[in-house]
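User: For my dataset I need records formatted as: sequence, then structure tokens, nothing else. Please produce one.
Assistant:
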Amino acid sequence: MTLTLGSILLASTNPDRLRTWYRKAFDVTPNQDGFLVFGGVAVLIDQRDDIAATPAEPGRVILNFHLDNARDTAARLDSLGVTWLVELEERHEGMLFATLLDPDGNYLQLIQFSAAYLARTGKGN
């Protein structure tokens, strides 16, 4: 059996506002079906009437964005006035890491893997 995580539904009571924010924040354009494609994972932001306006447990599911240049992305997010839970900082092996809130209050993380981490794990090839 082949199993692939191909998409994520990000439910919102205000999907137009949230979709617009993601487009600006990550410079991404929806595909013909309305999905925002980040590498191999597509995110559909859609209306749901059975949810609260903000998540009760925003850390339950966290979208991790792996970036080549976390500093530029953090600067763009700063210009949008985001709320940082953890500002961009250097961590183990020189990796850059940050946690922020999207307009609905969902947690997002920015991760830039260091050359040392990529070399150690063999993921840099």
